[in-house]
Amino acid sequence: MNNNHISQYKNIHPADIADYLQNLPISEAIQVFRDIPLKKAAWVLVELEHDSKAAFLDQMSSDQIAALLSEVPHDDSADIIGSLPEDKAQSVLSRLVPADSNKVAKLLKYDENSAGGIMNDRFIAVEEDMNIQEAKQLIKVQKNRNERSLYVYVVDSGHKLCGVITLRTILFGMPDRKIKKLMIPEVKAVSVNDDQEKVARMFAQYHYKSLPVIKNDRRLVGIVDATDIIDIIDQEATEDMQLMFGLSGEENIFTPWTKAMKKRLPWLYVKLLAGSAAATVISIFEPTIGQWTALAVFFPIIAAQGGSAGMQTLMITLRGITLKQIGLHDVKKAFSKELLLGFADGLAVGVAIGVIGWLWKGDIILGIIACIAMMLNMIASALAGVMVPLGLKLIKVDPALASGIFLTTITDVLGFFVLLGLGALVIHFSII
Amino acid sequence: MNNNHISQYKNIHPADIADYLQNLPISEAIQVFRDIPLKKAAWVLVELEHDSKAAFLDQMSSDQIAALLSEVPHDDSADIIGSLPEDKAQSVLSRLVPADSNKVAKLLKYDENSAGGIMNDRFIAVEEDMNIQEAKQLIKVQKNRNERSLYVYVVDSGHKLCGVITLRTILFGMPDRKIKKLMIPEVKAVSVNDDQEKVARMFAQYHYKSLPVIKNDRRLVGIVDATDIIDIIDQEATEDMQLMFGLSGEENIFTPWTKAMKKRLPWLYVKLLAGSAAATVISIFEPTIGQWTALAVFFPIIAAQGGSAGMQTLMITLRGITLKQIGLHDVKKAFSKELLLGFADGLAVGVAIGVIGWLWKGDIILGIIACIAMMLNMIASALAGVMVPLGLKLIKVDPALASGIFLTTITDVLGFFVLLGLGALVIHFSII
Fold first, then answer.
1. What does pTM read for this prediction?
2. Is A176 exposed, middle or buried, given 0-12, 13-18 or 19+ CB atoms closer than 10 A?
3. How far apart are CA A420 and CA A400, in angstroms?
4. Interface pTM (ipTM) of the complex?
């Protein structure tokens, strides 16, 4: 069976093997993993999802991990070591050959969500005073490195970034020309401490293939490739969607239920607290409901319509914030658009509900009350859908995280209050 | 002022100019656009958002558009021509130089969401029978092309893809070695008709820098680069989030409100129809509510908790489907995880609500009813959160589009029915 596995996996991409292993019970997965040749196994480890990776690493000794890491680039090693408990991380690091361990240790210093945390050190840098012949020789020697990039970065004698030159200029240029004369001196770069989402947005905006990463003194320390950004954009989108609904931002179908619950349940309780506001409005009007039960029939409709229209606005605003489509100067634009939509949709839905209410009970007053409650609710939801996320952003709270709860609380409370308040007024004046 | 603009924009990236123009009133934006030098203006046009691009193109003659398109690659030209009305598209196409117009016309044949629709033709292909010297000469001549890719694709005499070779192998290889001997014969490729999301998932899974695109007979027709995929992944995530809430999938803050309304309002009406199911349940129990108004106070809480827990499950399932984390063999796993969560969260929230109900009215029966309704609701929402999207996928309906409506309808109807049904039973037996 073991031989079977080895031959079976030979032509399969490590990412696919990782997927396969993640579907097996952990003990069986580790058994299979041990039969994969070292080099391939190292790449499989790199490709595992966060939780599975932790489970695998937990079963391995520092020696075993160090042996695997010697097969992968420094940035992948740093990611794996960074996910280990502190003492095991040190132990693995000390078992790498010194050249590797120094470089990995350097990468480990950066926050995992920063440009430094996602960059790799597989770039080619030539010095500005070299000529083409010398640069070409350097590139020829650095065999493993220059497969990574079409761009060759140019540094001065202090290793500070001062230009960029394409691989083909070096390869087809006259041997004695100076790099300094041929390079493009304006080169975009990101700072090692920039947030990974900022870096991702630069790639999305400018379609770069790679970007150099520099320290404050412009020393070149790494590069980020477009291929590295794809994962980050997936993560970013997943996170935005999940935070809106009280998920961790990292949960997937393989996350153990106990871990998922730790994040989901507190949010449900917060939501319960928010829901109590709407429940309180209803409880205040209990006598009204007792006298006019038909009003209660509109509760789910008012809540659903206000919530839905508000979520529509919220999605556009939130996505605008994430994709940096929205700046403070766009607020007016977004605001007037959503307000118009709130009026128009509110009128269209409000009249529909009003007519339904009227036909259903033959009571035009009931229809009018439902219509007014619906319209005000939808206008409020449009306003809240723009203001709540932007307001949260202004006070530095992640708008994806809390906007939904604020929004539905506002629309529910307002919707029920108008509906029941108008109902109470009507009852009051009919009795008089 | 005009000279001002020209010098002002000289060192600004076309994507940033496009952003700036999109914030101006359209007539002013076009005025400014006309002052930008042709080459820069062409790239600005490429970078504009869909709606702004259409507005700009509408103001330009076929001659003007053709002049701009002569400055950009064929794939960008094809995207722009593809967005024009049929007759104007033909007119622009006929004004391009024949070499360009043939290539653009070929690209236009593919669906814009397919691999063919997103590929570019800026790849280098060498023939397998060439030697290194010949290949090198070919690359040296194709100046503009080989800036794009580190990989050089190898084709046979029928232009069929048969291998790949790195640029550096060609550049540093012995001049008389045959390409056939040095190339890697196993080369992954996508079909010209593959959906762009499938292509995007391949890049996310395997971290490719670029992928060749082939026809059914393996003829090489283009390449897709990782940089092209970043936009698609952003689009894909935006679309998934938007469809869930009845948005077009392409709306952003710059979309005119009338256009936004056309998509949003029908969905609100569908939601209204779905909400009527829950309203009907309540209307059936109107007498119960009249006798026991406290039950109505729980409506917003039951709806919000069931909906929230269901949306949590739904988000995980939907994202799993999009990111291809979930196959049919994972359903059991997802199902048991969510069911456990439904029970556990249902118990935790149900008991909390039960205790609140009991303390609030001093009525333990009310607490028990609310608790049971909440628990059943949350279990149902967990089941629905897995089953609804997978079921919709099975019958080929986009799960992002309709899952939310089905889910909240199920949880609302069930929650209200259990709450009011139990309430009615209690009333019935108390009277007896």
1. 0.82
2. exposed
3. 31
4. 0.82
